[in-house]
Structure formats: C-alpha cells, structure tokens
Amino acid sequence: MARLTTVPPILAIVAGVLPLSAAAQASSPTQAPATIEALKARGLEFGYNLDYDQALAAFREAMTADPNDSNAHRLAAATVWISTLFKQGAVTAEDYLGQARSDAARQPVAPDLAAAFQTHIDRALALAGQRVRDRPNDPDAHFQLGAAYGYLTTYKATVEGRVVGGFRTARRAYSENERALALDPRRRDAGLTVGMYRYAVSSLSAPLRLLAGIAGFGGGRERGLRLIEDAAAYPSDTQTNARFTLIVIYNREQRYDDALRVIRALQQAYPRNRLLWLEAGSTALRARRFEEARAAIADGLDRLSRDARPRAYGEEARWRYSHGIALVGLRRIESAQGELRTVLETNAPEWLHGRAHKELGKIADLSGDRARAVDEYRMAHRICREQHDGDCADESAALISRPYR
C-alpha cells in the first residue's frame, strides 16, 4: 500500500507530523504566551496519542486566547487532516512504501472536515504571510509560512489525490524553510522539510531530477537524510515530527534496526498510540524477524481489545493480516489461516485482500495442496494487479511457477 515510488507522494511521509515553533507570534493574546504554548503542547500530546478531538479542542482554545497565532490555526488544520487520514485507513509506514494505490478504497472526506481544514489552513497562511511581509529577515516567520504550505501540499496529495495541484505549494514550502535555514542555520526544525524534499528528489530518475532542479528543488540523498536526522536529534517541537518521518525512510532504506529504535522511543513517549505497535510489527516483518513481529503485534492486539476509541478504516484487518504473516513465517499455519480468513471477511482496502490471498497460497503450499495454492496465487495476482501493487503481483506470479517453501 503506498507511496514512495514518485516524488509528490513522498510528501505524504509527514503524515503524523505536527510542527510547532517555540517562538510566540507577534500579536496581542488574551492570555500569557506561556499559557498559549502549554495549550498547543497539550494538543500535540493528545494528537500523537490518537486523541484527535481533544487535540483539536486544545488548539482551538489556543486560537481563542490568541486569534493571531498562525501556529494554532495550522495545528488545528493538521489535526483535521490527520484524523481524516485515520478515518481513511492510512495509518502506518506501510501506506507510504511500495506501489499499491490504497486511496481508491478510502472513505470520502466529510464536507465539514474538508471545510474545517480549509478554514484553518487559509487563516494560518494569511497570518504567517503577513508576518513574513512585516519581518522579512525573521527565520521563524519563514518557517511558519513554509510549514503551513507544507500542510496544504500534503493534504492535496494524501486526501484529495491532487499530486500535480500541489506542486506550487510544495515549492513554496521548500523555499520558505530553506530561507529560514539560510537566516539561521541553527534552525534544525526547518531542516526537516528541506531534508525531506532533498531526499525525495534524489530518488527520482535523472530526467525528473533535472526538472525538479529547474523548478527549484534541491537534491542530495545523504544531505537530505542528514537534515532529517539532525531534526530528529534536536530538542525542539519538531523532534517527534522528524522521528515519524525517519520511520518511513529507514524502512525504505532497509535500516530496520534504526527504524525499530525510533519506534520504541515513540512508544515510550506516546503509550496510548496503539498503532506504534503495529508499526513495530510491520517493520520486524520486513526484516523477516517473525517472532519479534508476532510479539509486537500480539501486544498491540491486546491494546486494541482494551481501547474503546474509534478505529481506523480497515484497522482490524491490518492487525490480523500482519499477525497472519508472522504466523506463516513461524509455520503456525492453522492459526495463520484463521487470521488471514478474517482479513478476507473484513471491510478493508482491496490491496489487503490481494495480499491475504497470497499468504493463504503459501499456507496451501506448506500443507502440500499445490492446486489450492495456485488458485490463491492467481487470485492474489489479479487483485494486486488491479490495485497496482506491483510487489505483490510479482511475488504472486513467481509463486505460481515455484512453490513456497
């Protein structure tokens, strides 16, 4: 499921990223700046723990305290955006790796949520833009404006599917954060966006890298990754943002130990975010560490069973699918088959059903039923091709010719 095959979709890796500057806006708040910052910090804590309604309430309270704070409006927009992705089922790094187009199966955006996002992001852009005009050499002003444009870009790409439509705002997000770095190289929080775009451009083909350079995007994989790592190591309000970004990149780079190290730190910081246990299990699966994956997913399933809060679209199927893969890897085929059959019976993205059929084919092969295995692989191949899940389609095709052992 997902999205690191072209540059605009990689912008989606900031899903879960909520940048917040420590600097107060130039305004006339009704409460002390320290109180307003505490409200925003509380909102971030709620948001990272999947408590989106409480997060939004905290940010709106901060907006009431200081209507001219672009931070609060931007964070409210980000909360609406992230909760929308949650409802659509885009919840882990799996959604930003590979080729499957999961957006075809996502739920439509509620008009009130779309309107709320637009209202808050428009206000954030207006306030931050005015601040840049008033204080053109203020690095934080440029950072705030770049961050707002970054959210607008990612919303277009991840929720609306408007990749081309987000090009202009992506370029503005990059240039404003680059300007903030030029004015103050110590602003490692601004390096997160710059590094992300540099890393994305480095992944393109040579002709597309040339076009990106002409459009104003710098490249450089190592430089980009270093900027993101610096932001992740720097004590600031964007540190957690950078860590979420690194989970995706480390998985893409097959640096699974590094990804798991970041995930464990986030689990300690945000213990109510059950999806971090699904993230740990999925990462361990990519590393083919099946027992480690099984343990992480079992822990997460226990947390899920005790969590009365809303679930993401297809979340139950995601947990069962990952658990099933771990059990296949451990050759616990009866238990694995039960989990994978549950996936097929659950309302979930179709790409997930295709991959479940592939794993069921493996179980049939391990059971000595080659005819049933081939039927499952053919079903998987058809669904995966329809969902543009190239990795799954290729593996299924290979397994039709060669039994799984």
How would you describe what is shown here?
The longest helix has 24 residues, at 111-134. It is elongated, with a radius of gyration of 22 Å. The protein is mainly α. Mean pLDDT is 86; it is low at 1-27 and 99-105. The chain is built from 19 helices and no strands.
Shape: elongated
Helix content: 55-70%
Spans of at least 5 consecutive residues with low confidence:
1-27, 99-105
Q: How many strand units?
A: 0
Strand content: under 5%
Q: Residue-averaged pLDDT, rounded?
A: 86
In sequence order, what are the helices and strands, one letter per element? HHHHHHHHHHHHHHHHHHH
Q: Please tally the helical runs, counting DSSP H or I stretches of 4 or more residues.
A: 19
Radius of gyration: 22 Å
Structural class: mainly alpha
How far apart are the termini?
25 Å
Oligomer: single chain
Largest sheet: none
